[in-house]
Design goal:
Layout: E1 2-7, H1 15-26, E2 30-38, E3 49-56, H2 58-66, H3 73-88, E4 93-97, H4 102-112, E5 118-121, H5 126-132, H6 139-145, H7 149-159, E6 163-166, H8 169-178, E7 187-189, E8 216-221, H9 230-242, E9 247-252, H10 260-267, E10 276-279, H11 287-293, E11 296-299, H12 313-320, E12 325-328, H13 331-340, E13 343-346, H14 349-361, H15 363-379, H16 383-395
Parallel strand pairs: 1-2, 1-4, 2-3, 4-5, 5-6, 6-7, 8-9, 8-11, 9-10, 11-12, 12-13
Helix pairs in contact: 1-16, 3-4, 5-7, 9-14, 12-15
């Protein structure tokens, strides 16, 4: 079968999309990908996949997307390109990623004249998530981008799909409860578990340990933003610094533009400048080297509909790195961590602080929880878990 995959971003660093593509490819399907290629970047080819890149500047892409609910030029662009993509590659299926691509995908199929099914792959609870993004905040930005329109459009956009993939059973249940007219059988839950065959590790990564000294190192990896709970964590580290607790904090990831000034001011304060190290970016193959020098990993997401739609990639990365996890009590990650006894869940800053102190003082507990998480990844929580489910979508 010829399967077309549509991603409105770059492909090469999207672990979830690449994992699904590999499963479909190994099953004997021919995979074609339509995605963006930003004009100032070069991309490595991916073996066994035919990739068509829409060359565009990142600034123009962001501008078109910003106005999607006002002037839908973004959808017009994708509809035209998907039509051609479907015709040229004689696709048997179309697999589009993210809610806002659903209408363009369906329109492109109709315009191509090929009556083929469409799979919609939801990476997040988008109608809620978009209201938390900084680019939608402020009176003028909110008025022009109209993020709340997605609550009204969600049902319509879900209705374009023949099958829908979600991150968790929790999110599936939420959607079927909100839209009972959608048959439950249309949904399949595929969590962000890793593909062990795709784990690449960079050699000769030099990590600076000078700030660690004799301290216990807590790692946060991912987007740095208020909604991700980063400032809650920094507040706790300020309290620990006052008490001269032997811990330090390593933060790796890009900062949301609106939070940048606040974050840098906080980390450069008298209390934290010697206890917090910030690294703006690393390539994914470098992550194991930083996990190796860390003692504990942190997932301080704010509890909200977005973070309760599934388990983030970083949770599985932490488990694969054999590190115990301190995480907020968002339902999916709480259920996972408690099931495998691979970390400590907290509900407020007092409990977060207590968890850091407890794991900092107990080497054996850290090792035990780290091993529990690793064992779960190797034996259960990897791509073998989602392989059968993904292939069944297409066979049905």
């Amino acid at each position: 079968m010829n399967i077309g995959v549509v991603v409105d971003n770059e492909l090469n660093d999207d672990k979830r999309v690449l994992r699904e593509i590999e499963i479909l490819k190994e099953a004997g399907n021919r995979i074609f990908v339509l995605c963006f290629g930003f004009s100032n970047r070069n991309y490595k080819s991916i073996e066994g996949i035919i990739v068509t890149r829409i060359r565009i500047s990142k600034k123009l892409k962001d501008l078109l997307f910003f106005f999607l609910n006002t002037i839908p030029a973004y959808e017009w662009l994708w509809s035209a390109r998907i039509k051609k993509f479907t015709e040229v590659n004689r696709l048997d299926f179309l697999h589009v990623h993210d809610l806002y691509m659903s209408k363009s995908g369906k329109s492109g199929i109709r315009r191509s004249g090929r009556k083929i099914p469409m799979v919609l792959d939801l990476h997040e609870n988008y109608p809620y998530a978009v209201t938390t993004y900084n680019w939608t905040k402020g009176f003028l930005r909110n008025m022009l981008s109209r993020p709340f329109a997605w609550r009204e459009k969600e049902k319509e956009y879900l209705g374009y799909a023949d099958r829908i993939i979600v991150l968790s059973d929790d999110f599936r249940d939420e959607l079927t409860g909100r839209y009972p007219e959608l048959p439950e059988g249309i949904f399949t839950a595929l969590p962000n578990v890793p593909d062990l065959s795709q784990q690449a590790y960079a050699d000769d990564i030099k990590t600076d340990l000078s700030f660690k000294k004799e301290r216990v190192l807590i790692l946060y990896f991912g987007v740095v933003a208020e909604r991700r709970g980063i400032f809650d964590a920094l507040d706790v580290f300020e309290q620990l610094a006052v008490e001269n607790h032997p811990s330090c904090f390593l933060v790796i990831g890009p900062i949301d533009k609106k939070d940048r000034e606040r974050f840098l001011a906080k980390t450069e304060s008298v209390l934290l400048k010697d206890r917090v190290k910030y690294i703006p970016w690393i390539d994914l193959p470098e992550l194991p080297a930083y996990l190796e020098i860390s003692n504990i990993c942190l997932a301080p997401f704010h509890k909200n509909p977005q973070h309760e739609s599934g388990v983030a990639n970083k949770i599985f990365d932490y488990m694969l790195g054999k590190k115990p996890i301190i995480a907020s009590d968002c339902r999916p990650q709480k259920r996972l961590i408690e099931k495998y006894n691979c970390g400590i869940i907290y509900s407020d800053s007092v409990e977060m602080k207590a968890a850091i102190i407890k794991l900092s003082e107990d080497d054996h507990l850290r090792i035990e929880m780290g091993e529990n998480g690793y064992r779960a990844i190797i034996t259960e929580l990897n791509s073998s878990l989602v392989k059968e489910k993904l292939l069944k979508i297409y066979s049905s």
